[in-house]
Amino acid sequence: MNDTVYYAIGDVHGEDEKLAELHDFIHEDAQRLGVAPFFVHLGDLIDRGPNSRGVVARVMRLHEAAPDRAVTLKGNHEEMMMSAYDSHSAMAESTWGGNGGQAAVASYERVNGHHGDWREAVDRAHANFLRALPTLWRDEERKLAFVHAGIDPPRFPDCSDEHRLWTRSPKFFDPGRWPDRPELEGLVVVHGHTPTKDFAPHLNLRRINVDTGACFGGPLTAVVLAPDEKPRFLYAR
Questions:
Q1: 0.90 exceeded by the pTM?
Q2: CA–CA distance from 203 to each of 38, 78, 108, 210 (Å)?
Q3: Strands 38-41 and 220-225, bridge-based pairing
Q4: At a CB cut-off of 8 Å and minimum separation 6, what does 12 contact?
Q5: pLDDT of 97 above 80
């Protein structure tokens, strides 16, 4: 029996203090349940908030401590960062910088110093970690799909990375518009990317959104998914 208890965490965006607190809450919750927690970070670890480097370092330490019980997905902000990092394109750097990347660079430079090229301030291990992140993780037995932004219902599971990283399509947001396909039968998609307006998680029978605007004054949220139980939520404020 698949008795894994998942803790899926929404967009962190550099809010390292909230992430540290939420990790503590998760460990406390798992200890109360008598289980080993399975962490899923849903992407957008970086940008906008005060300590992107600290967030990446914390998540990497978690992977090192529990490699079989941690998954981190790539978000569109990791994609923008690594596009700028790898391409040396002024346009890619401008796009990323204008979407919170400057705050991420500042967090790295505070620790590693200022250089002529901002890439020199980014820990090489961090760049390699972010570049290699997957865009989808599934528990097929439990019919759970974890992704940063969402899926393309007519094509799932063969969605493009663009959909997984960027989509805000009404065709995904409204499960009533999902096609009748066996691949979607009973599927629940757990995602972030689109901050909820009321800073509360959103859920229906097919979709759980845990981006509660942590970098905009909302809490950092994790959804707890235990077998045969309704989803519940933990918050770091």
A1: yes
A2: 20, 25, 35, 9
A3: unpaired
A4: 18, 19, 41, 44, 45, 46, 49, 55, 214, 220
A5: yes
